[in-house]
Amino acid sequence: MDSLHDLPPLRDVITRHDLSARKSLGQNFLLDLNLTSKIARQAGDLSKTDVIEIGPGPGGLTRGLLLSGARRVLAIEKDARCLPALAEIENAVPDRLHVIEGDALQIDPLEHLTPPIAVVANLPYNVGTELLVRWLTPKVWPPFWQSLTLMFQREVAERIVARPGSKAYGRLSILAQWRCDAKIVMHLPAEAFTPPPKVTSSVVHIRALPSPRFEANQKILERVVAAAFNQRRKMMRASLKSICPKIEDHLHNAGILPTDRAEVVSLEKFCALAQSLEQSKKN
């Protein structure tokens, strides 16, 4: 790995390749290699793991992942301006870094990877939540990934780990916690980035469970949760009335008061509600 240490400082790389961050791409570059290495370590031992990185930019986290011993990194970058900088890292570690130009929302990375697979990324703010939801809601579980170590705006990170009764608790909390363990492992101040965003950022580590915490039909659960939190100020009997004309019966079956609001309903009860609705379809 000595050749990685010979690479120029990231600020020099940005200046040389004229890589000013673009707001339209949700870019905020993290240049402190001590911080990027610390983020990489939050993913655990990666020495026997292939890693997907989305939006590597000039390669700060990419370097951190490689220095931390990741077996192989697949970096997907939409901004062609960053490719020469990433190529310098690729040349320093032959066979351990593969860079693909393109939109992460439209690329299937699996043909380039060997399990086990982890995702580690400082996600662009404009696609971060959409990518997370995709990773949390595959058709088959367990998913292709073992863990996700992702940076978000702190507000989004808190929604992922929120518990019932909090204002942050919502659809993202349910999707993440139904089949995963999720925890916030780091906070980063705005001044750690170039340019500094207007918000604090947080790193969340999400580990896939072998099976869901509670039995539930995925499609029904997702539909119920979306409807409940889309009108979170309404009572459950009102927010879910479009799903089933006898929704109050199903709420009672799940141990939910019809007058409850979504933010106080536990994951277990949402799953019980989905099961009750599924059972009624079979009868």
Helix segment tally? 12
Overall 3D shape: elongated
CATH A-level architecture of the largest domain: 3-Layer(aba) Sandwich
Q: H/E element string?
A: HHEHEHEHEEHEHHEEEHHHH
Q: How is the CATH topology of the largest domain named?
A: Rossmann fold
Radius of gyration: 21 Å
Tally of DSSP β-strands = 9
| Spatial ordering of strands, largest sheet | 4-3-2-5-6-9-7
- Count up the domains: 2
CATH class of the largest domain: Alpha Beta
Explain this structure to me?
By secondary structure, this protein is of the alpha/beta class. The chain folds into 2 domains: 2-208, Rossmann fold; 218-282, Orthogonal Bundle (Helicase, Ruva Protein, domain 3). 37% of the residues lie in helices and 18% in strands. The protein has helices at 2-5, 10-16, 33-41, 60-67, 83-92, 128-136, 154-161, 171-179, 218-230, 236-239, 247-253, 267-282; strands spanning 29-30, 50-54, 72-77, 97-101, 117-122, 147-153, 180-188, 193-194, 201-208. Helix 3 crosses helix 4, helix 9 crosses helix 12 (267-282) and helix 11 (247-253) crosses helix 12 (267-282). It is elongated, with a radius of gyration of 21 Å. The termini are far apart.
